[in-house]
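Run log, item B.
One chain of 169 residues. Sequence copied directly from the ordering sheet:
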Amino acid sequence: MINMNKFSLSQHDDELFDIIKPVKQNSNEHKILAIWAIDCLNRILPLFENKYPDEKIPDTAVYTLKKWINAEIKMWEARKYAYTVLALAKSIEKDDKPYSQIVRAASHCLATCHVPTHSEGTAMYVVSAIKHINKGKNNVVALMEDERIWQINHLKELMKEPLSSILLE
């Protein structure tokens, strides 16, 4: 696990990336990564929803990705909504950096349908949001570490399961 005292969005977590990088596009493991990305995002998305209760773009991103996972829409149909999500992140970033990180996580989450390694971006932006939301607190590094440990352990668990046994709500 990377040192959370030196956390950077541009630095891969080797342990996490070693699991994600070999996944082939359009495989069952690709869809498992998408489910994992949703699970990671859902750990922090309620904070965004509480602050922005009328903003539905991140929820729509999750819904769209689930439709791709369930083969209800094609990748290109799902992926194009990622630009809407990214536009929201950019529009709030100047005034609300912590919550823009959650929206960026949602953008990467949805973009996982296009490229499996975008799932790592989801996890990274979730940790970044935790860092920004808890800035100045004594336990911020511990919160970031706890999240990354959960992310890695959860991904390892999901990768052991056949796709058909993982249920989406």
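Observations after the first pass:
- The chain has a mean pLDDT of 94.
- The chain has one domain: 24-162.
Flagged for discussion on Thursday.
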